[in-house]
Amino acid sequence: TFAIEADSITKIYGSGNTEVVAMRDASMQVSKGEVVALLGPSGSGKSTFLTAVGLINSPTSGRITIGGKLGQDGDTAYVNLRSFRRQHLGFIFQKSNLIPFLTATENIQIAMQLNGMSARASKTRAMELLEYLGVGDRGGSFPSMLSGGQQQRVAVARALANRPSVILADEPTAALDGHRGRQVMELFAQVAHEQGAGVIVVTHDHRALDVFDTTYEMEDGKMQKQAPLEQTP
Ligand code: ADP
Ligand code: ADP
């Protein structure tokens, strides 16, 4: 089974005169352990695709399967969908979306505690993840006290905390310098290969493209798989 399977998904926003076809018949198959880059100009439908795969935004038509398990069922109870997402999906958005009144460590812990992990175990893992991402000394800080790049690293740690089988990232390195950006991309690849996770990263960052196994390009709502990239020296 694939980690992620999107089969001919179409998304139309609005209706009548205001209708916008954001995505037309987009398909993608991501194997376990595969890291996919999704490129394309602004407004081409990348976020629409990612939120559909993340079961946040349901497509107008088409089918999405995560780990061969969940179809795109309109009647899936919201609560179940939420717990499914929490267990299987890790999201990283352009903005870190950290909870402002929780510290960095607590922001990561809450993801694990919602899945039933103890406060103590979740704290240990949260601190390890922060250390691994180079912000081990900022665990007690509130988001407002962190730089954009530091907030982003906390958000990456939070997304990896539950060892998700699918990681979806939308411009995760936008707030990071070249070195940190590359490190985050390499971490995704490492997590994919070690945990067998499927990873999709929307990115404009051409410096780290060699980290990816596969590249897709979105243009005007159409998805196209690219030929393997040449390594640039
Ligand atoms: P990208 O992520 O590549 O910038 P998006 O998926 O955000 O592209 O947008 C694709 C198209 O869908 C754009 O034309 C955008 O204006 C439109 N769109 C996105 N979200 C909405 C929405 N909630 N309502 C109406 N149109 C939308
Ligand atoms: P270092 O590179 O400093 O030796 P490790 O690779 O031992 O660090 O990882 C330190 C912590 O980072 C781990 O305990 C774990 O919490 C997190 N980590 C590292 N690799 C992964 C991974 N593939 N998946 C999830 N978490 C990871």
Structure explained in plain terms:
- The chain is of the alpha/beta class.
- Helices cover 32% and strands 24% of the residues.
- Strands 5-6-7-3-8-9 form a 6-stranded mixed beta sheet.
- A hairpin with a 6-residue loop joins strand 1 and strand 2.
- The longest helix is centred in the C-terminal third of the chain and has 18 residues.
- It binds adenosine-5'-diphosphate (2 copies).
- The site of one adenosine-5'-diphosphate (ADP) has 12 residues, from strand 2 and helix 1.
- It comes from Neorhodopirellula lusitana.
- InterPro entries: AAA+_ATPase (IPR003593), ABC_transporter-like_ATP-bd (IPR003439), ABC_transporter-like_CS (IPR017871), ABC_transpr_LolD-like (IPR015854), MacB-like_ATP-bd (IPR017911), P-loop_NTPase (IPR027417).
- This is ABC transport system ATP-binding protein.
Structure summary:
The chain is of the alpha/beta class and 233 residues long. Helices cover 32% and strands 24% of the residues.
Features:
233 residues, alpha/beta, 3-stranded antiparallel sheet, 9 strands, binds adenosine-5'-diphosphate
What is the topological layout?
Layout: E1 4-13, E2 20-30, E3 35-39, H1 46-53, E4 61-66, H2 78-88, E5 89-92, H3 104-113, H4 119-132, H5 148-160, E6 166-170, H6 178-195, E7 198-202, E8 214-219, E9 222-225
Parallel strand pairs: 3-7, 3-8, 5-6, 6-7
Antiparallel strand pairs: 1-2, 1-4, 8-9
One adenosine-5'-diphosphate binds at residues 125, 128-129, 132, 160, 163, 190-191, 194-195.
